[in-house]
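Our collaborator T.R. sent over the components below with a one-line note: 'Predict the complex.' Nothing else. No constraints on interfaces, no templates requested, no preferences about which chain binds where. So this is a plain run: every listed entity goes in together, and whatever single assembly comes back becomes the starting point for the next discussion.
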Amino acid sequence: MQVTGMLHGAKLLQFAGFPTSEVLGPAASEGEIKDLIARHGSVFVKPVFKGGVGKKGKAGLLGRAKDLQTALKEKERLYFAEHRVGNNFYKANGVTFEGAVPAEHEVYFSITDSTRFRAPTMTLTHHGGVDIEEIDKSLVASIPFDPLTGLKAFVVANALTELKAPKQIISPLVQQLPKLWELFHNFGMTTLELNPIRMRADRQGRLTPVACDFKCGFDRDDPRWGRLNLPSDLFAVDYSDFEQEINQLRTYQGQSDVYVINPAGTILAPTFGGGANSLVTEMLGDNAIISSDFGGNPPYEKMREVARICFKHWLRQTNVLFIIGGKSNNTDIFETFRAMADALREHFSAHGPTPLHVVVGRGGPNLIRGMGAMRDTLEALGVPYHIFGFDSDMSEVVGFARQIDEWMKAGGRDQIAASLKNARAAA
Amino acid sequence: MFKQGFGEFKYYVGINSLSQIATRQDRVCVLNILGGESKDVTPVGHVYSGGNVVFGTSPGRSGQVLETSLGDVPVYNSVREGMQAGHRFNCGVVYLPPSAARDGVAELIRVNPELNKIFIVTEKLSVHDAREIRAMGQQNGIDIFGGNSLGVADAWNEVRIGGALGGDNPAEALKKGSIAILSNSGNFTTTIATYLRMAGWGTTTAISSGKDIYIHYAAPEFAFALANDARSKAAVLYAEPGGHYELEADFNKPVVACVVGRWKARLTRAVGHAGAMAGGDDDAGAKEQWFMAKFGVDGIFTPENPVFSARGAVVTNIAHIPMALTAVMRENATRPDFPPEGSLALKPWFASTRGISLPAALDLPVVEAVAPYNEQIALLNRQVGTVFPRQTLKDASGASQLDPKTQVASLNGVTMLDAAQNPLETNIALALVHEAGGDNDRALVNAAVGSFLNLHGTPVLVAAQASREDGNAPNAVMAAAACLIGPRRVEPARRAVRFLVDAFAGAGLKTALDEEFDFGGVVPDEAMRGVLVGKKEDAEAAALLAGLRERGARSVFVRYLESLGRHPTADGVLAAISATLAWGPLMRKRISLLSVENLPWGIKLVGTLLGASVPANQHEAGRFCGVSNEEILGRRSLTEVAYLGLLGQEPRPEDLFVFQTLIGLLLTNGPGAISIQGVKGAVSADGPETPERVQLNKALVGFLSHSGYAHGGNGYEGIAFLLDQFRDADLNDPGDSGHGLDLKALAVRYTEVYAQYKSNRKTAGSLDIQKIPGVNHPVFKDKPVNHDPREVFIWDLMLDRGEYNVFHDYYRALVQALFDAGVSRTVYCVNIDAVIAALLLKMLWQPYRSGACPAAALETAAFTLFLYARMIGSLAEADDHLNRGRNMDTRTPASQCKFVA
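Returned assembly:
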């Protein structure tokens, strides 16, 4: 859940009373763009990507215009710009026009939680405007501070002094930067980065820090960001329909984290526990449809609903339904297995049988009752299965599921389909 | 800004040695002790630890207790109240929801100066709150474990605090040994301990650190306390991507580090553990490098390529931990704590290939589970049949459903279109045992149900006939009969079937048709023997057995009955047939034992009600509708006899097919149908949670009272319409496509009449225009040409059989004529009611034309046929509600009821 760019960033900063560059959105009229150029001399034209996307400048996805004609040309070039960062591909939908802020000094500022200091930490340098990783460490201050008192002016002042920052920028930054703590801490952020903050001079030469780019990340588990009234679709692009449906069930009782690994995969693996999730998904690779963690002792109703959604989206293409977790501490195996078995039974009733092999690996409270419920349902549905206890090496069980998947691909699926058909015919 | 603790940390650490983390001296206060998770977990930890929980809090529940086998743990509104009551503690456990956890930490710290450890179980804590919790702990010198932790456990001290490590039996995973565990995953803390035991390694202190962004007790301080713990010779660390905790850890004892999560580099957001996000310099690859540098190794330890040093090894698979640890410890001249307790080889506890041949490597045999699970499995295997979870079944059913898209209903997974192709006896099996069965099952049903048709000389027939003569509709006639088939009448057969199932399941019977099965060990007690067999010959039983023999029906239970040395009773034979029919579905867990017990009742009800629907003069001594009892029991199909009973004449094959098709189509229309609501209401009112009190015959009375000429008679509406259209037509055989009638002209004639009627009504200002029976459907509309898929199915089915139906054909001509004349905007569909009417009338046309069946009797016949079909669907529904429903679950809350004036 990230927000980048000034389109929304400016509004958030204004909320905290922090000066920003002037920004127009994709719907800006030609007159408005012209006026913006007239006021600031030139404008930056930037594509709007949903979510957190960096390195736009390096990818040439930054336009600058001193006249309307160029601005519109850049708008046309960047409106649907495509951008690849690592494995991820993004497509823009819109542009912003941002008034240029002439300045001598560019400052980098961020707040995030440091696992080294185990405290919120300010990172600050007056050599901003470039990627922070590219700046010599000696020119960057990383200062942890007490969250109970917050980011105080003296913390900023001390950091800038130690960095030997130019005197004229110290006072305006000391006045303005602490405001950002309120925005960060009180609205559920996990990171906040302004780079660059350009130090704009007024007629008397007094400097004002002006945020010219914005990036922040929100904590999904913190309802405080709801206070910002951000557009509801701002983060929606992050989630597929399936993920969205599962996320609606997200409560503190029981995990329900999913990520679609490969929409064309053949192993559907409801996984229990973060550790099992890491192990299993790593071993299944692209055969896995989803990466999931449904642990945390979900109640029956929630588990059944989660399973129902999983089956609705993925069961038809699934070769192996692979239910896997370690030896659970508090997740009730009877409740969770009964819920999944019932969801499977309902799915078969509603949509007809689908060729499937079920592989289970699990341990925990009420284990045999849970396995029994699953077995009985699979027997009733005519689905073949292998159910392993916690004394089987979990990675071997994963390997077994993969081998079953391979066998299914090599004709096993047809055999099971025929067997299910025969069972129905006999019935 | 932090208190000074042990070690040279930049922050407060109050734990000097792992042995101090969970001790027998620790006393615990649990916040939200009565919460869903704590109330199960806390008693287990309390007992394991010798009673370490002094009290818990739960606002508003002061005075309550948490029961444990070591005595009750008191509950107070707040920590202060508990302390004022004289309790003292040094450990706080937070089971609060995420929004309240921070306040809980503040409460513990402010109120109790003796506090030195907090364990936060709460998941999904916001980072905001974690930050503040950290700061509070640091300022006040408190060690915090978590959040999102499953707490800590110490196998030496036998203490568990703040979570569920080891599950409901901590001693099973935690055996005293020399290895400390720190794991980002709570589940893996226990799983690793279990794996270590297999290889002969026990544990000292096991810590579930949690994997939030803030890990309050993490690797650096763990390494410090490990060094100072004389009991711990080595440690296992389980680490996931995210955070620099492990980088800062300085170990001076051997360590096996398991780093998992390289794949997360592909993710764009966190899944699973909140902090486990890829990217940056703290991903899985980076962590592997940190540990490799610490241990002086240049690769990952795998069984094929064991890379390790005396300082440690890095694995990426938790299953490799035991082997890596043993290798590392061997370098340190240290042997396992005890002999290995097992192996991690693949051991399926349950498996079935459903007869499909898997490659040898995948066809793993079932292995007996370790104790105590093997005993539990043995116990489980002794249970036969399934048990359904109970739920509110108002407007819901596990037996029937109506597909909203196709409007095709299904019963026990078989669509009505498929059921329509099966004979009546097959559909009875489908309803009662959830499977349609094969030839043998049909033979059993034909004989068993057939044996109850002839009611000559019984009070049931007297009651039914009296009801009929009082002018009651056929449903009321059948209800009069149903009332007399009460629980006492079927009690012996129900007991007998229960005995047979229990005894033969115990004897290991696999298939009820097993001619070789040795039932020598199945011995009934005297009372049961008296139910199964008698000294004198039972004529009913003898006739039924003769019928079964004539049909060549096989049954291990009948064979058993005949082996008992006396004369089988009618109840015994009915029980034996029931057990045979139910055995397969029961073993396949498709039905419950409860359903099997009720099966004799269901069979008896179907036979009796079919019989009661036929006037008394057709019941004679030894003959029913003119057919001898022997013939009914030994040769006739139930479909034939039911047809005969309904229409009083022998069916031709095509008539029989139409009859069974109609029965199949009308079996159910889903749980919303009024008739089914009647059944469900009757069962619900009896209280299915006490199933022995539910009367199956009363459930059928519920169905019968909830049907009538409006619901159940709509087939006749279509018949009346068709009769009107064909009044003047010279039609001899509706099945003859060479009928010589101009159907189009017939359709146009009615269209003109209807158009005129419609126009007159509109002119008169009325919008209440009567619809044409059998035409149009609220779901199948709005296309240029509309079809009801059920109608299309029957049309094609009959076409395939080379059978023609002039009435059905007429309906198709009619919808086209309505469109051509501009009466309808689109070509309406011919709906399923039209099909039913067309089929019924085709079947009844000859008796109607010959005068044997006057127009009024047509209506009764159509309604009775509906009752035959829906009676079977109703039995399925009653059985379903009995198995899954709750007491009085069909009522409507008063808030949803309306008063109308």
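Summary for T.R.: Residues 22-100 of chain A form a domain with the Dna Ligase; domain 1 fold (CATH 3.30.1490.20).
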